[in-house]
Amino acid sequence: MKDFKISVTGDYERLVPFFIENELEFSEDEPVPTDLVKCWNIMDDEGEDGERIIGAFVLAKREGEFIVDGIAIDPKYRKYHLGKALLEKGIEETKRLGGKRIFLVARAPGFFRKQGFVTVPREDAPNFFECLTCPQYGVSCHPEVMRLDL
């Protein structure tokens, strides 16, 4: 199996197009201030175009709570369990910073349930559920607000 390296990155702007390519919704104008905590990426330098992002994770805070502001893995690399590895980085950092829980909006809730997350009502989470304005919401996407207690 190929050995992948997860690296901290300060280049959030480079991650946004990767998230959009992997069908995560990102808005330039977020209605609630979001503070970036830390970003990670996984690069592959064996592609035809040179080095490219194959995985990314953004840990942030909203309304004083830690949130997964983005997590995605290129579909060709999902068999390597890179999503779990990135999620573990975010959980470790949240614990290191004294966080007691972490929230996310899941398009793939089954994956997150396997990692210990539970579905919670939107009103029990910080205001980061911006899906209601997305044309995919309720049609091809049925996200769940989830929380992991640490």
From TrEMBL:
<protein>
    <submittedName>
        <fullName>GNAT family N-acetyltransferase</fullName>
    </submittedName>
</protein>
<dbReference type="InterPro" id="IPR000182">
    <property type="entry name" value="GNAT_dom"/>
</dbReference>
<feature type="domain" description="N-acetyltransferase">
    <location>
        <begin position="1"/>
        <end position="135"/>
    </location>
</feature>
<dbReference type="Pfam" id="PF00583">
    <property type="entry name" value="Acetyltransf_1"/>
</dbReference>
<dbReference type="InterPro" id="IPR016181">
    <property type="entry name" value="Acyl_CoA_acyltransferase"/>
</dbReference>
<dbReference type="GO" id="GO:0016747">
    <property type="term" value="F:acyltransferase activity, transferring groups other than amino-acyl groups"/>
</dbReference>
